[in-house]
């Protein structure tokens, strides 16, 4: 029989909080106990390592605490260790008798990732500038509102701002539309313009239109590269332009596309087009390291890829620094893994029919550049997902937080096909007694258990949330009053299994539930919430451990139901 992994952790005392030494030792990161004079009274092993490294960080922490008149909150400071600089985010918690508990979290990777993303965006901006002779933007009147600082056509930026681009077109262009006022994206269009000395110059223009919130045209934005000396360009120059086109689109996608998942689909399309491939599939690594499809672009996915590549092939791609080339069915495949900070986070696979030209060195170079950018995109997507989880969920219970719950409920109620629904407003009975008698650690255990009770058995589309403290909500879509009452009774019955967490037999844990049934068009979100809240108080007045159904909104009739367990 294997040893219990928790056998070395002392059990929680039912009669009081954990001892200082036990609390410090149990914390996974650095933890320090400061006395009322802000001197170190105790520290766990992780904190001892930081203290032994010396430096000003402890003095800065003490100075910060000395200037705080309320709960200090969070503070991030660098600590120089033999293995390198570590960024530690400290959370300071006031304790009785003026003592303070410092709990640290290693934020080095997060800080480095944020800095990497900032540097990447700056790099993309620089690449756009160096990959063109000039970048520009026109306003709603069709005139220039921005030109890169180096100017264009021999003009200074000041000489071009406010000027109509039509004045720069050669006479032969006549009244033909220009990319500067295009209502649709322009990609690598040839355009002849006049220099300041009236000599003609040929440019390749890429542009995108700009639209306002109401769909009105607001201007256009793009870049121009002069090709006067290379109108009859060589095959080598064609490949260079193809690479620049790929880079410009990838940079544009990652810079301006807020949705990183959508950016991957755009990148897949641009990769296939730039490499002359029949299709492209972008893989992303899961938490276990397995590669899963994240984006596709192809007129038709080959049957061999429809059910995905075999796991051994994907593992071979991820495990090799070199690109992987193979024939699968009637297709030639070329694959490269993607990385971020030397960690493999996905792969890019492109394919052509076996009757097409073989992959050459230029194709491999282009794919290598794409893989570099996709690796950063994967890291950006992972960061977005982490931020979304942090912003939407309650950190303790994992339920939707107040803001996200009401935003999603408002969206659900605004849909015309919502149908009848019900809002359950749930308040814990005798919760304060748990905190007072057993401490906040057991109080947190109660809140986590209630979160599990609310999510157990809910249907897809139902919304459980924590409003804060001991107040919870549960929205049930397409639910009538009888169904809502059934759910409330199930919640009340479920509290029986949590009675062991109560403060005592005389103060049993329980729920007071207010039910408000909603019908489309009958009331606002605030009115629905107020009715459910009021019904919850009606239930609590009956002695706790009850539910009550709120009266119907004005103009409707419905009896008030009350019950308890």
Automatic annotation (TrEMBL):
Top-level EC class: transferase
Region of interest called Disordered, as start-end residue ranges on this chain:
543-565
Please tell me whether the keyword Transferase is annotated for this protein.
yes
Gene3D superfamilies in alphabetical order = 3.30.450.40, 3.30.70.270, PAS domain
Which reaction does this enzyme catalyse, per its entry? 2 GTP = 3',3'-c-di-GMP + 2 diphosphate
What protein does this entry describe?
Answer: diguanylate cyclase
Q: Which UniProt keywords apply?
A: Nucleotidyltransferase, Transferase
Q: EC number(s)?
A: 2.7.7.65
Species this chain originates from: Azospirillum himalayense
- What GO molecular function terms would the record report? diguanylate cyclase activity
Asked if the Swiss-Prot or TrEMBL record annotates the protein with the keyword Phosphoprotein, the reply is no
């Amino acid at each position: 029989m294997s040893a219990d992994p928790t056998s070395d952790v002392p059990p929680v005392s039912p009669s009081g909080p954990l001892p200082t030494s036990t609390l410090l030792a149990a914390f996974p990161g650095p933890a320090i106990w400061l006395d009322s004079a802000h001197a170190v009274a105790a520290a766990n092993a992780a904190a001892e390592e930081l203290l032994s490294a010396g430096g000003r960080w402890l003095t800065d922490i003490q100075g910060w605490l000395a200037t705080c008149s309320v709960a200090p909150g969070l503070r991030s400071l660098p600590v120089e260790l033999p293995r390198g600089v570590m960024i530690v985010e400290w959370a300071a918690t006031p304790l009785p008798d003026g003592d303070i508990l410092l709990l640290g979290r290693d934020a080095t990777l997060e800080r480095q990732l944020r800095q990497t993303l900032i540097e990447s965006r700056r790099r993309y901006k620089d690449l756009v500038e160096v990959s063109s002779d000039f970048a520009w933007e026109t306003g709603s009147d069709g005139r220039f509102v921005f030109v890169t600082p180096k100017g264009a056509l021999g003009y200074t930026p000041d000489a071009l701002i406010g000027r109509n681009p039509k004045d720069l077109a050669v006479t032969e262009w006549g009244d033909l539309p220009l990319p500067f006022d295009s209502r649709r994206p322009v990609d690598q269009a040839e355009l002849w313009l006049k220099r300041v000395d009236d000599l003609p110059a040929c440019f390749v223009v890429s542009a995108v239109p700009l639209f306002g919130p109401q769909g009105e045209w607001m201007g256009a934005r793009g870049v121009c590269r002069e090709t006067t000396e290379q109108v009859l360009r060589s095959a080598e120059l064609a490949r260079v332009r193809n690479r620049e086109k790929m880079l410009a689109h990838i940079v544009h996608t990652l810079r301006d596309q807020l949705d990183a998942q959508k950016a991957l689909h755009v990148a897949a399309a641009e990769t296939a087009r730039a490499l002359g491939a029949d299709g492209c599939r972008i893989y992303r690594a899961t938490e276990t390291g397995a590669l899963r499809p994240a984006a596709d672009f192809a007129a038709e996915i080959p049957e061999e890829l429809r059910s995905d590549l075999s796991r051994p092939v994907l593992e071979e791609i991820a495990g090799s620094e070199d690109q992987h080339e193979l024939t699968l069915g009637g297709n030639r495949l070329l694959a490269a893994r993607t990385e971020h900070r030397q960690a493999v986070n996905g792969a890019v696979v492109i394919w052509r029919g076996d009757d097409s030209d073989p992959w050459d060195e230029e194709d491999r170079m282009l794919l290598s550049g794409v893989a570099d950018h996709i690796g950063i995109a994967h890291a950006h997507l992972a960061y977005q997902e982490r931020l979304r989880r942090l912003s939407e969920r309650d950190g303790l219970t994992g339920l939707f937080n107040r803001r996200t719950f009401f935003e999603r409920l408002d969206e659900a109620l605004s849909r015309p096909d919502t149908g009848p629904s019900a809002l359950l407003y749930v308040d814990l009975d005798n919760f304060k007694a748990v905190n007072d008698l057993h401490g906040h650690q057991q109080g947190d255990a109660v809140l986590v258990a209630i979160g599990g009770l609310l999510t157990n058995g809910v249907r897809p589309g139902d919304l459980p949330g924590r409003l804060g403290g001991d107040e919870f909500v549960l929205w049930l879509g397409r639910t009538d009053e009888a169904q809502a009452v059934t759910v409330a009774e199930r919640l009340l019955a479920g509290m029986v299994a949590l009675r062991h967490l109560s403060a005592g037999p005389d103060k049993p844990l329980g729920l007071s539930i207010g039910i408000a049934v909603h019908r489309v068009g009958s009331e606002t979100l605030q009115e629905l919430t107020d009715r459910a809240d009021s019904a919850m108080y009606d239930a609590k007045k009956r002695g706790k451990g009850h539910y009550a159904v709120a009266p119907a909104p004005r103009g409707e009739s419905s009896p008030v139901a009350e019950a308890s367990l």
